[in-house]
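Deliverable D5.2: sample structural annotation.
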Amino acid sequence: MSNSSQIEMNDIQGLILRGYNFPHIRYIIFSIKNTDGAKQFCADLASGTAPGGLLITNAEPWENMEKPDYCLNIGFTYAGLEKLIGTANSKAVERHSSREVFKSFKKGAVEDAGQMGDTGESAPANWWKNGGWIPKEAPTANGSELHIQITLFTLTAENREKYYAALLGMITETPSGPAVIPVYYQDSDPVTVDGNSDYVHFGYRDSLSQPRIDDIIWEKPKMRKLMGISSIDDRPKVPLDRFVISQQAKDYYAHTLLVNGTFSAFRLLYQDEAKFNRFIHSNTEISPELMAAKMCGRWRDGTPLVVSPDKEDKSLGEPSTKNFNFTNFNYLTPSPNQQGDQSSDELALKCPYAAHIRRANPRDDINVKGNDDNAETHRIVRRASPYGPVYDPAEKPGIQRGLVGLFIGAVLDFQFRFVTRLWLEQGGFRNPDASPNYSGVDPIFGPQADDSSPDNFVFAYNEKGTYTETPNLTRFVRTDGSLYLFLPGISGLKYISQGIIPPPLTVN
């Protein structure tokens, strides 16, 4: 997929290439009880012609640029894929795909938990147990009954119930019951702060920065103008094959079934806002807002520290995905249209190396391990949203809130797994790093209780050449569930619904 004429927008699931920006979402996990009935369910979702009529949303532009009533997307765990296409076909797909493409997906999130920092309270033994689990029987330890993940996006809460009922109505009934059953769900609704609904828990403005994907219609000047998107965009373009699986990629190869699909980590992340607030207030020599900004790399309104290290900058305009004042910046050399402070932040005097956004996307900082291309190999499309109510300091304990959704990339090993394991969950990811704890772990997540390194329980940042250290950093984010998913192209979904696979690519 080297040019736009080769992009089959009608064969790619829509959420891979664009955020829908629908306010009311339901994330559902299904278990297959009858394979033939499950295949029919998938076939009906691929065609949209069955009673109920729901259709998997592709990446084609919406008619007249108007949002539909709903969008719908689907992914499969390895266990689900194997049930539908069979063991022999699953092995054939693996055999004709490079190791980094398929192995981690097959291994699954449960087996990979230790590598991803999902230990202690975040360990798989505790997953799916904090609300949302539907069956009377507890979830199994290995997650082998979790097969299909579907995300329903709607414009109203009422439509969410309407289309969810329609979705369930499409499931084939067998003599022993429904062919697939929902076993878990989580709703997401906007978190509104001061009248704005683009916030996530911990009080940060969200939906500001996603990868700029090359060779897609949304990047064409005419389309950007129609959508009211500024053309002053310094973000480097990331090749399409980082997010849509291609047989023309230079650093991986994939079976034909995978083409136009992608992989994703589905994550259910509980956020302990009471703990977080206690920590940012724990150092009386630092304002809580400055502490929160240093931990994230942005002020809570979205202003990057690199652009404005001392305060929020209202001159940047209204934060949104259409205003690139919030994304036009680098760490070593200012980007062409960077606002505010133009000095290099090589010494992390403005934005700590440890800060969440600097770790997740180090941009031009070539001193970060594995970053020699503006992080383009490792960029992730995040289609995640908040769940649970806005935090109230007077609330009773036990209220569930956090972030749920999909972290998308064509190769889990290059993207989600690489960023999580090497940049978020480890110190020493940058060299040189003069901080006293080698920047520890990502402070927004915090260390696990069983972490053996004392360095990871300290948050340190450089202020005018002297490091300020705040001890007693703790875990603020708990993993309550995780799946590794394959999101097929529409053609791939049709093959899966028939229990077959296309021929692999042959090279003459």
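Annotation notes: Confidence is low (pLDDT under 50) at residues 1-5. The CA atoms of residues 246 and 410 lie 9 Å apart.
The annotation will be released with the project's public dataset once the embargo ends.
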